[in-house]
Design brief:
There is one protein chain. 93% of the residues lie in helices and 0% in strands. The protein has one domain. By secondary structure, it is mainly α. It is rod-shaped.
Length: 30
């Protein structure tokens, strides 16, 4: 069960990093 929680947290962090990267790319355009 703990492994599942850690996996979910890891997925959330990965998704957050992806969003931040895309926001950074958008900012670079302006």
């Amino acid at each position: 069960m703990k492994i599942g929680v850690i996996s979910d947290i890891h997925d959330n962090l990965w998704a957050l990093e992806e969003v931040m990267r895309r926001l950074g790319e958008c900012e670079a355009l302006f």
